[in-house]
Request: fold
Amino acid sequence: MIDLLTVQSSTAYPTVITMIYTLLLAFILSSLIGFTYEKTFLGLSYSRNFVQALVLSSIVAATVMQAIGDNVGRGLGMLGALSIVRFRTSFKDPRDIMFLFAALGAGIGCGVFAWGVAAGGTAAFCLVAAIVSRSGLGSRNFFDGMLRFAMPNESEARLQLEKILRENLRTFVLVTMREVDGGSRIDVAYQIHLRRNLGAAQVLKKLTQIQGLSGVQFMMQDATTEM
Reply:
């Protein structure tokens, strides 16, 4: 009974308390990775299921590594069993794959009882992920998205539009402008950079103050669908 309450790092015959500590640490580390992913996510297609999958994959990895232990035969048998399972889930964002690898790495580290390596590696990964996300490393898109609409071809409407854009946007650049309806209206498109304290919905709401403005569309820089 005393042996069951002793933390042993031997991969041959881990005790019950060791398995509990291992799975608990894998859960904590993978939850930290999932929390970092949630806070640093910058795209549009956020998936709650993916964050939960990060935690679950770490638990599975830790369990598998404990089951294999130092037995080569078990390792080969587990490899053959896992080769039957085919994962057909596609990842559009390479960053998601890195977070999945980090969760698996934390689980594997816990499973082989390299707790210090698992904890240190997870802390370093989350710290670097947060720094890279804040610094905007690799970003070449200065604008947040494209704003498109049609409005009356009148000087008063143009002045009102320019005033709203200057007050509510950090930067905006006219991309296209063409006359429609026999020149009575113009169809325009702007590349815009939003202010931190204002969202796209607030800017669109203020644009509705312009009389005769219609067909407002805002498309994010990396989006595949219009909002």
Remarks:
- The chain has two domains: 3-135, 145-220.
- The CA atoms of residues 149 and 164 lie 14 Å apart.
